[in-house]
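=== Discrete structure encoding ===
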Amino acid sequence: QVQLQESGPGLVKPSQTLSLTCTVSGGSIITTYYYTRWIRQPPGKGLEWMGTISYSGGTAYSPSLKSRASISRDTSKTQFTLQLSSTTPEDTAVYYCALGDVQQFGSWGQGTHVTVSS
């Protein structure tokens, strides 16, 4: 029922900020304790958790990305934004958002490819 869709520019130049939006649709969030997570997968590599924004708006980030990542939401709670600053080619990946609870990633979007290249 719940659908997630990632969107944003597919090409980013090094040093620029990557900005992606996750749009949630298809049904209301029935739990008051939901968590929206951003995960990425570089080509040929495994999944990497990037960060989480909670139902209350609190955020947590991977230690390796904390200095560069920022997750926010709009007032409707249906759009979530990931910003990753000072990008390098190593940030090239498929980026996913997922909606779940405190213990599970839950429903995933289909992912969106982002290439960081000059």
